[in-house]
Amino acid sequence: MTVVVRPLGKAERQAVVALSVADEQDDFVATNAESLEEADENPACVPLGIFVGDQPVAVDDLVSGGDLVGFAMYTLDADDGNWWIYRLMIDQRFQKRGYGRAGLRAVVERMSAIPGCDAIYLGVVQENRAAAAFYRQEGFQETGQILGDETVMCLELKKPERLGSVTPGGAWSGMQLR
To answer: Chain centroid to CA 38: how far?
Structure first.
């Protein structure tokens, strides 16, 4: 199974709006239409489709079980200066297949390549114990902070540490991973 995240084109944006979580999950995540509206109003938000396979899906393909299975959005929060995953959802028809875990890992990988992104934050509605357990399994830890009705969790990213010095030609004379 190949799961990729990529920015949304116009057709994908329409298809993302059609995705939904199960009824019992409605209180845990904003609708994708609300999320895309937030992204339109805040250019720091990066909305992404979660796709199975390497080809993006057209709107009509979604009806016949195409490759778009979910939606994610991340941002550099202007209020606290931290990188946040604002949204992560998998359509109810595609849950319990590993797409959420693979999608989260793809988003984390994408964000870890951003200079200055040393940690990723997210909020989990306190009653959503399944989501909190899922994020803990992926290395997120509760920070002790509560925002509204959400518990804040954080994943510290391990970045390469450079040891040594720069030579006159600009090359490093040593590297170590932590």
So the answer is: 15
Q: What is the pTM of this model?
A: 0.81
Task: Determine if residue 71 is left, alpha or beta; phi over 0 gives left, psi from -120 to 50 gives alpha, anything else beta.
Answer: beta
The structure tokens listed for 98 are 């590993």
Q: Smallest Cα–Cα separation from 74: which of 65, 83, 66? A: 83
Whether the Cβ atoms of residue 83 and residue 111 lie closer than 8 Å to each other: yes
pLDDT along the chain (178 residues), means of 10: 87 89 80 91 95 58 59 95 96 92 96 96 94 96 95 89 48 38
Please count the residues of the chain: 178
Cα angle 50-13-123, degrees, rounded to a multiple of 5: 55
Residue 60 near residue 15 (C-beta atoms within 8 A): no
